[in-house]
Amino acid sequence: MHLEKAIEMKNITKRFGSKVVANRSVSLTLYKGEILSLLGENGSGKTTLMNMLSGIYYPDEGEIFVNEKPVEIKSPKDAFDLGIGMIHQHFKLVDVFTAAENIVLGLEGEKGKLDKGAVAKAVREIADRYGFEIDPNQKVYNMSVSQKQTVEIVKVLYRGANILILDEPTAVLTPQETEKLFTVMRNMRADGKAIIIITHKLHEVLAVSDRVAVLRKGEYIGDVPTAEASQQSLTDMMVGRAVSLNIDRPLAEAQTDRLVVEHLTVKDKEGVKKLDDVSFVAKAGEILGIAGIAGSGQKQLLEAIAGVQRAEPGSSVRYIEPDGSSSKQLVGMDPLSIIKKGVLLSFVPEDRFGMGLVGTMSISHNVMLRSYRRGKTPMLDRKFPKQLSQKIVRDLEVVTPDIDRTPIRRLSGGNVQKVLVGREIEQSPTVLMTAYAVRGLDINTSYTIYNLLTEQKMKGVAVIYVGEDLDVLLELCDRILVLCGGKVSGVVDGRNTTKEEVGLMMTKLGGGN
Amino acid sequence: MEGLLSFLSSFPTLLHSGVVFGTVIMFGALGEILTQKSGNLNLGVPGVMYLGGIAGLAASFLYENVFCPGHGIEPVAWISVALSLVSCFVAAALGSLLYSFLTITLRTNQNVTGLTLTIFGSGVANFFGGSLNKLAGGVGQVSVKVASEAYRAFSFDLVATVDSWTERIGFGLGTLIFSYGFLTYVVLVIAVGLWFFLSKTRYGLSLRAVGENTATADAVGINVTKYKYLATCIGGGISGFGGLYYVMNYIKGTWENSGTIEGLGWLAVALVIFATWKPLRTIWGSYLFGVLYWMFFYVAGLTRSSQEIFKMLPYVVTLFVLIMVSLRKRREDQPPASLGLPYFREDR
């Protein structure tokens, strides 16, 4: 039944600089009235390919056909004119504008007049037709992530888009919001629109799409009807070889208490308790998983231990020396005093560029951020970070043009994370804390990270792993601490628990109520 | 006590001066708001005002003192005014075009470029100011009588009538409100016009989007470069009128290099912050700044050094506003989010 082609890309090649080839001779077809999943590892060129449809990038080679006519898409405006609308991973909305203002932004309209009432009406019509919930007069900065996404989608529909491209739309949504989005997508498909969804999550690919196209390292591997695909077959296509879905979990011999957290309470700027009387012990030689719905206090927990967040009076975080001789109170200290006390604490924060790395600096300079105090003279020691960077790049297979010139921001997400984790591990920490260490990473890179964490555990490091994927938590961690609304709802043994048990604790405090 | 009394009795005169200085500042600030709404932080406002002032003066001077005597005709007021207005706008816009080319096309640092423009503008203006003086036969000899009088003309009858109405309160409302040249009222029209443009039109919405989130504006097909260039150049042109107003209305059509234009130019930049980027707020803000700027003149018993404390007042209130705004955290009072940032489309 899918006969009419909405988009056809033929032999598209896109290079960045002279070394990086983001897409190599990719050919892709999208039919009207279908949902196509574009699947691929991080850095496989999915977003780049789609950006060439939305006019952000221009292909170096190849042809694009829209509605079976050859076209040149040189700017986002050209894309709009052709009825192509892209919903980016990072929303392109103006925060201080209302939903309606964002939706009409850039449209000419009648003689430049801005009739906010008419716009609001048109927006509501679109919302009713496809099942969105939206308030045209709400300011974007007051919106939740899911509401912002709705504005983005309505924006492209308002512009008359018939071809929608969604770049990892579910990465930021709750399962309920995801389900809502899928319903909307199905409504749009029924309306004859062609949709491309970029995603990592295989079960979503299977749930929503009609056909799956796979990219690997910038090349088009092939496409299969979703009905004939399975998680295993898609994984094989994506990574090119079968990946063992088992995470190795050896048991470390000596487990001693390393961090003793008692009555830890953290309030935010408005005085709301983000962590409420949290107590637990992290042991050397184990991976302690932290599970919980997003925003249950995971961020505050790690930051309070690292000395970045202020803890309320009465909180206690005691660090016990590896030889067991003495303990140190970490509450009330900033990161520098913690280092000076000789506590070897490493922290891989959730926000890679906000707290972990400086995007405009090179790999070796970012590594230097952790080591610049080493030198005995006032001069920077450049040799050591350079050697360390080379080691990280080699050991973790970081793909980068160089280590001392290219801003780290230009690397793909997975490579950036490898550098960050690599740098922290190279500090030979006794406590290693990671927040969403594999978020946005492909399966291969994720496993590299899991192995690194396990290796650290076996060396006698106390590893704290904040994660969102329950399957991984259950396979990777020795114990799992479950947070719910800033409180500990329980600690379970990673080897003897089930997904259902942890899931229940995440939503309700364990033990009834 | 005596000092206070004399201060109060001179209050209407102070307000009057406040309006004159306020107008200079308001021109500068309105132009800068338009510029900053496109995300360009142009610290070249004082330089642009200098350029506008000297170009307007030179045009009138050449017309009144070179062209007309050369052809044996009497200078016509409206032609002299029109020539100075156009030259002022063009020169100020050209200065801003230079800034635009450097910051938008070549992506230089906006702060450095703006400061350079200020130094450049004041240098160029004082160089040509000196040349005009030389042409006219000595320092302070430049005079564009015809144009300056036309700039300062107002209806005596109207002022007298309104003054007589308000005689009873001992306060010449007519003098306070109606005794200024036409540019004093034009700036109010520009303020309201700019407000309307920014908040009621699609072009204004697009411009604000460019300044808030350039990548977003680009992604919806707004021609970012065009908006930035136009806003910066037109904004510069508007700022330039501030310099022209000072030259024609306050120092009555001559040239001095006392650095007053530069001082007022910086106040214009401060006023943009004070008004939290809202054109209508610049109206009362500029008059307040004008009064504060000139207050030292009316406070008895000030020495040269204690004067400076009073001259500081506009900046103190600006600091106060900055503190208040940051405490209140209203998103609508914040500067355009992309202010000062260069934009690269292919940057990831």
Provide keyphrases for this structure.
heterodimer; A: 513 residues; alpha/beta; Rossmann fold; 3 domains; six-stranded mixed β-sheet; B: 348 residues; mainly alpha; ABC transporter involved in vitamin B12 uptake, BtuC; 74% helix
Strand content of chain A: 25-35%
CATH superfamily descriptor of the largest domain in chain A = P-loop containing nucleotide triphosphate hydrolases
CA radius of gyration of chain A: 25 Å
Q: Work out the count of structural domains of chain B.
A: 1
Total domain modules of chain A: 3
Q: What would you report as the Rg of chain B, rounded to the nearest angstrom?
A: 21 Å
Gap between N and C termini of chain A: 53 Å
* Coarse morphology of chain A: globular
Given this structure, which CATH class of chain B is correct?
Mainly Alpha
What CATH calls the topology of the largest domain in chain A is Rossmann fold
Task: Write structural notes for this entry.
The complex is a heterodimer of chains A (about 525) and B (about 350). Chain A contains 17 helices and 20 strands. By secondary structure, chain A is an alpha/beta fold. Chain A has three domains: about 5-240, Rossmann fold, CATH 3.40.50.300; about 250-345 and about 430-513, P-loop containing nucleotide triphosphate hydrolases (Rossmann fold), CATH 3.40.50.300; about 355-425, no CATH class. In chain A, strand 4 and strand 5 form a beta hairpin. The longest helix of chain A is centred in the middle third of the chain and has 16 residues, at about 175-190. The radius of gyration of chain A is 25 Å and the shape is globular. The relative contact order of chain A is 0.10. The model of chain A is unreliable at about 510-513 (pLDDT under 50). The mean pLDDT of chain B is about 90. The longest helix of chain B is centred in the first third of the chain and has 29 residues, at about 75-105. Chain B starts with a helix and ends in a 20-residue tail after the last helix. Chain B has one domain (about 1-345): Orthogonal Bundle (ABC transporter involved in vitamin B12 uptake, BtuC). Chain B is mainly α.
